[in-house]
C-alpha cells in the first residue's frame, strides 16, 4: 500500500487571531514495504502531517492519496482508510479502557461486525505480534500490566484492525530502557517478519538510525530533507540548523575525523562504530 501527499497545506484556527500555518507545500511518497523515520524539532509539523495519512485531519489545500485514491473524494469511506492506515498516538495506553486485554484489543474488530471466531483470531494474532503471551494476558486487566506491556497491548488494538501501514508517533516516549528496547525490537519484527509498512515519528536520532531505511526531516512545516538514512545523517549542518543532531556514535566519528583520524563518519550504530574503531586501532598498530 502506498501513500502520496501532494502540495499539502494545513492551517490551524483559520480566520481567527490564533491562525497558524502548520504545513506548507508538503510533498511525500511512502511506498509499500518501507520503514520511514520522520524527524524534526517540536512544532515542525510531524504529528500534523501523519494525521493526514488516514483522514483525521483534512488538508486546507492539497491532496492525500492512499493506493492512488484521493481519500477526500465523496465516494471514499474514511472508515475504510483508517482500517488500512493504522495510527498509534503518543501514550496509546491512555486509550485502554476495557476490563481485560482481550476485550480491549477486540474492541475495533468487534465494531467491524466480525464474527467471534474471526475476532478471536485477530486478537490472538495481534497480541502475539507485539511479543505478549496471549494466554498469560488475555484475561488480565490492561492496568495490571507494566508500562511497556500496556503500550504493546494498545498497539495490538491497532494491529487487530489488520492495517497495511502502521504509523507510530513517538511510540517509546516515557518508557524505561527495558520497555523501550523491547518495543523497538517488536517494531523491527513487525516490519521484517510481518512486512508492515512502518512510519516512525521520533525525537531519537538513535532510534531512527537503528530502524529506519529512509529519513524525512521536517522544519517549520516543510520537508527539508528526504533520503537514505546514512545520506541524511551526513547533512550535519542542515540537521543542526533545524534544531536536530546526529546519533551520538555518528557525532563521535565526526569528532575523530576533525582530529585527523582516518575514519568513516557515516556510522549509525554502536556495532558499526565499534567495528570502525577496531579497524582504526589495528591500522595504528594498537591492537592485533
Short description:
This protein is an alpha/beta fold and 288 residues long. The chain has helices spanning 46-50, 78-84, 101-111, 116-129, 134-137, 147-159, 177-192, 205-211, 229-233, 236-241, 248-258, 270-283; strands at 3-12, 20-30, 35-39, 61-66, 69-70, 85-88, 165-169, 197-201, 214-219, 222-228.
What's the structural blueprint in terms of helices and strands?
Layout: E1 3-12, E2 20-30, E3 35-39, H1 46-50, E4 61-66, E5 69-70, H2 78-84, E6 85-88, H3 101-111, H4 116-129, H5 134-137, H6 147-159, E7 165-169, H7 177-192, E8 197-201, H8 205-211, E9 214-219, E10 222-228, H9 229-233, H10 236-241, H11 248-258, H12 270-283
Parallel strand pairs: 3-8, 3-9, 6-7, 7-8
Antiparallel strand pairs: 1-2, 1-4, 4-5, 9-10
Report on this model:
By secondary structure, this protein is α/β, with parallel strands linked by helices. It has a domain at 247-288. Helix content is 39%, strand content 21%. The chain has twelve helices and ten strands. The chain has helices at residues 46-50, 78-84, 101-111, 116-129, 134-137, 147-159, 177-192, 205-211, 229-233, 236-241, 248-258, 270-283, and strands spanning 3-12, 20-30, 35-39, 61-66, 69-70, 85-88, 165-169, 197-201, 214-219, 222-228. The protein has a six-stranded mixed sheet. A hairpin with a 7-residue loop joins β1 and β2 (20-30). The mean pLDDT is 94.
